[in-house]
Amino acid sequence: MTKVKNLAPGVLLCLVLAVPCWLLGKAFPVVGGPVFAILAGMVISMLYRDRERTQDGILYTSKKVLQYAVILLGFGLNLSEIARVGAASLPVIVSTISTSLIVSFVLCKVMKMPANISTLIGVGSSICGGSAIAATAPVIDADDEEIAQSISVIFLFNIIAALTFPMLGSALGLSNEGFGLFAGTAVNDTSSVTATAAAWDGMHPGANTLDQATIVKLTRTLAIIPITLALAVWRTARAKKAGGSQGSTFSLKKVFPFFILFFVLASVITTAATAAGAPSSLFQPFKELSKFFIIMAMGAIGLNTDLVKLIRTGGKPIFMGLCCWVAIACVSLGMQHFIGIW
């Protein structure tokens, strides 16, 4: 009971903050609830003074609730459906993901950027924006300011993509299929993919690229599994080596992010249930709860973020995000031209 009393004020604050941000995200999907929550949290943190009473709950929300959100995210992935529909887009998806990760790694070394921010921007740009950052952050033990910085960078280029990609696609003469693949692979976040594809459909009546772009995006989201597991194994090996060299006892439970395994299990349950005849709508509440938990966690991260410091140190992350974004767009279009979809 003592622990609950310590956590309750901070968790309640994040819950109250999340509700209007969730509604705003519904009204403005191109921005999204998580971005509204981070911005609101950062503004409130500049005015809020009762930090000590709520800090434990805010920290719990930014760490544990974020992990619960990732687990529930797994219920939105039907592996068999993605494998059936999204397989044709795999060459483009693999190429764009690899490109973003390589660009972020090289720039991390060249610009001497913090490894955690580089990793988060790399996976956020290449996989699925905020969801990938949410899944990766606990694995690499990223702090709240690193998460906020990465989300802000992803948000910036989501907005630019949603506003410019439909016009760019028309100027390049992309087919409806080609633009669906372009939007699904070159736009970072799921909500922004939806907004971009919907804008194209508005410009081209009857195009119906929204469904294809969404499937491509969900196929891309699957990369969360191997990438986070690879990062987890790498971090575990480093921790084990450090523990052994220092003569301390190594604990797998403390360093390995077991919530990722629950995320995989949730995906398997969804796949098995739908194969057995269960309607996909059965898992919709879990998906919505996952989105709401992410918004709660992003609000908590905003409350723990120094806005002034974030702005002062934002130049290099924004440049990295730009490089990843441009590289992904170019590779997506280049691969389409190479395999004859364009």
The percent range for helix content is over 70%
Give the beta-strand count. Answer: 0
Number of separate helices: 17
N-C termini distance: 61 Å
- Uncertain segments: none
**Secondary-structure class:** mainly alpha
The averaged pLDDT comes out at 84
Q: What gross morphology would you assign?
A: globular
Major sheet characteristics: none
Task: Please state roughly what percent of the residues sit in beta strands, choosing from under 5%, 5-15%, 15-25%, 25-35%, 35-45% or over 45%.
Answer: under 5%
What is the radius of gyration computed over CA atoms, rounded to a whole number of angstroms? 20 Å
Order of helices and strands: HHHHHHHHHHHHHHHHH
Describe this protein's structure:
The protein is an all-alpha fold and 342 residues long. It is 82% helix and 0% strand. The protein has 17 helices and no strands. The longest helix is centred in the middle third of the chain and has 29 residues. It is globular and about 60 Å long. The model has no long low-confidence stretch (mean pLDDT 84).
